[in-house]
Request: fold
Amino acid sequence: MTAEGAERPSLRRDLGAITADGAAFSVMVGVGETYLVPFALALGIAAGQASLLATLPILAGSLLQLTAPAGVRRLGSYRRWVVGCAALQALCFVPLVGGALAGGMPALGLFAVGAAYWGFGMATGPAWNAWVGTLVPARLRARFFARRARWAQLALLVGIVAGGYGLELGKRQGEVLLAFAALFALAGLARLVSSRLIALQSEAPGLAGRLEAIHLFGVLGRLRGREAGRIVAWLLAMQVVVNVAAPFFAPYMLGPLGLSYDGFMLLTATSFVSRVAVLPLLGRLAERGRAVRVLRLGALGIVPLPALWLVSDNLGYLLVLQAAAGCAWAAVELATLLAFFDGLEQEIRTSVLALYNVGSAAAVALGSLLGAGLFTALGADASAYAALFAVSSIARMATLPLLRHVVPPRAPAHAEELDTLAVRPSLGALQRPILSSLGPIGEEP
Reply:
């Protein structure tokens, strides 16, 4: 038997487990994390506090990911670290189920659960990204990760739809908190299944010792003068002003607009589906050297979105707006990620991803705190929403001059696949790149 033939059973098992893990993880996101803010609102937590639940815990997660290399070396295994973090993330749904069944949960407790959820989830990122690149042969990566992404997107969409209809059914029967408990139980179970699938994947002896520590300040020096360095100021400024308004989308739709849970689900699903549908076209444009044009069009497209939420409460209008929003945000995120990672040496990509996550999370947290403070100062009523959305649109416009001097990257852009960490009705999704799908430097797409 040839070496390739001997490798095939293990390879097939690994590829199957990686794909199934992506689908199970996506079910967790679809039925669990997506409905955390609506859960807070259903418990009677004020809109200002509930809006922060979608942003502040992500900062805790981005900081905890910095400990991943030390954790992997301490355990001597990528697999042990990733499986352990995944299982702990699954257990974060236990107090949510308890709170839903008890009929109440303090806001501080929800924030603690959210911080733990994002902390354990993002802590898997650096290790999983480094590990999965050793499991999938280079010749298979483009096709494999594209197929895996399709299964994960389908599972996520099914989770979102099931969650929305389940909550609306529970609301009509007067048992909406019981419906939340069922969703969170399903989400926790899906992540436990995901952790089991991760445990089935193989790991070469001594592999964990190769994971480099994350050197944020060193990476900042390497980025100086690159296209990534030129757009980081715009990215952080835009994240701040966007999140003055974005966390208030769910409270506004479920509050003053009186949207049903299945209506909220349709808006969430529409922005996600349009984002996924347009990414291949945007990727082809980026490969033809038009990444900066994609970025500028996306940046211009997201400027008026908050103000346009105020135009009408007609569901058809809002669905069309959400479809446009998903396309605009897809353009911004794809072009931003390409600018960050295109042409970067493989050995620093993990550190660059960590830097991207920390900087983005800090900007998101700052923007959401500013928005929550302004919302409260304005009286936390319908007029406060209108003022907040208008301020965000004006501030988004003010960041556009920062893109004036951005030039196209010299190296060819690589096709990339993204893992969806969360779905946001105002943004489409929060995603991270699978670094091994970017390909080595100098490799044609």
